[in-house]
Amino acid sequence: MNHGDNNITVIDEEGNEQLCEVLFTFDSDEFGKSYVLYYPVGADENDDEEIEIHASAFSPSEDSKDGELQPIETEEEWDLIEEMLNTFLEEQED
């Protein structure tokens, strides 16, 4: 994962690179991980479609430039992410 200002490049299972925009990141003491929520760049330009938001755990590298994305492994982590996303979206509406 490379991050620019608010963008990251995500490489999928087939090795394709996709530029994504970071929605937000947060840390979880409970799981001892950091998480990033993101969506493909340009997805917010089409108002008719719902944006598919992706989430991954990540470990920032020492220099904080690149990090390693990791899959979300447990139901508890997904519940936490969903809760954080709902809170974030509610704050955006205000």
UniProtKB/TrEMBL annotation:
InterPro entries noted in UniProt: UPF0473 (IPR009711)
Q: Which residues form a coiled coil?
A: none
* Pfam families per record: DUF1292
Q: Which PANTHER family match?
A: UPF0473 PROTEIN CBO2561/CLC_2432 (PTHR40066), UPF0473 PROTEIN CBO2561_CLC_2432 (PTHR40066:SF1)
Family listed: Belongs to the UPF0473 family.
Q: What is this protein called?
A: UPF0473 protein DFO73_11048
Organism, as annotated: Cytobacillus oceanisediminis
